[in-house]
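User: My advisor asked me to double-check a structure prediction for DUF4185 domain-containing protein before group meeting. I don't want to rely on an old file, so could you generate it fresh from this sequence?
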Amino acid sequence: MRTRVVAVLIVLGALLVAPPAARAAVIDAGPFRASVGTPSVVPNRASVPVYPWMPDGHISVLADGPGRWIMFWAEFENYRTVGTTPFPEDQTVREPSGRVFGGRDDPNRCGWDNGGSWLMRVFRLSGSRLVAYYHAEDWWCGADLGKALWASVAVTYSEDNGRTWAPGRQIITSATPRPATPVFGGAGDNDVVYDAYNRRWICYYHDGGRLHMAASYDPAGAPGTWRKWDGTGFTVPGIGGADHSIDAFLPHEGHNPSVTWNGYLDRWVMVYAGWDGRTYLSSSVGLLNWTPPVLLLAPAPPYDRIWYPTLIGDGGDQSSGRDVRLYYARMRPGTGVRDFMSVPITFTA
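Assistant: Sure, here is a fresh prediction for DUF4185 domain-containing protein from the sequence you gave:
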């Protein structure tokens, strides 16, 4: 999201095989170990137009009946596909064929989302009613041309299983007001999980280069109900309130966190992109206190970043087990175009 370069990705089957990311065979994550397999390129079987820039955030998949899964492709404009498994390589059809949310045209030309809206995390509330928490970008009414952005976190709802979405509303904004001169900043690159034990939503996001969190006790995560973490509790207003960093991540700060409940490990697992170009792994029992992050994947030449990670298992992105797949972007220096990659991971408690 920080680099927007218009390019054409020419995919020739033989050229998809490239040097894998440097990785350790087994990673000691403290309470458990993670064995990393061999990476492969995820094909674009559904011919999604934004594929050259995927992934560009959290990958959200939802069960939609036996043998049917919906995936939302998060980019400045978002697409909806269906497949037979929760895994992106098995998504085969766009339903509908066009974008379902976002864009950089009217009516969003001068709003807080004029640079696009990324559907980062989608949940089913009931029946065909869905909620999506998304990353929005302000490009100063299009004058910025992708050289800077001001981010915020917003929520939108769908009544038709994600085919169309209502206009969104902001739920988390930076404590720093948007400046008149275009710069990179704001609060965004978010992920959201539902904490069923405490009956609350928790949003993880970055602002000022650091990871933060906020919570809502509203069943639908409605605007105006979000409070930021103050170091001991969720008390600070989500709109414009002060941000308090999550201490565990200070040694290796990053962005684009992705969290899943792992039933095999009996704990939450987070992966996120480090500012050093690497992807890190951490875990938590209660979503508030996280283990020290450990290196999961690092880039190898000619690539310089392993970013935008998501863990997906048989239960989709919301829950997983011993065997999961990590999806991520393998990026080249000086360009936003990337390879959509997947690698198997096996956890051992």
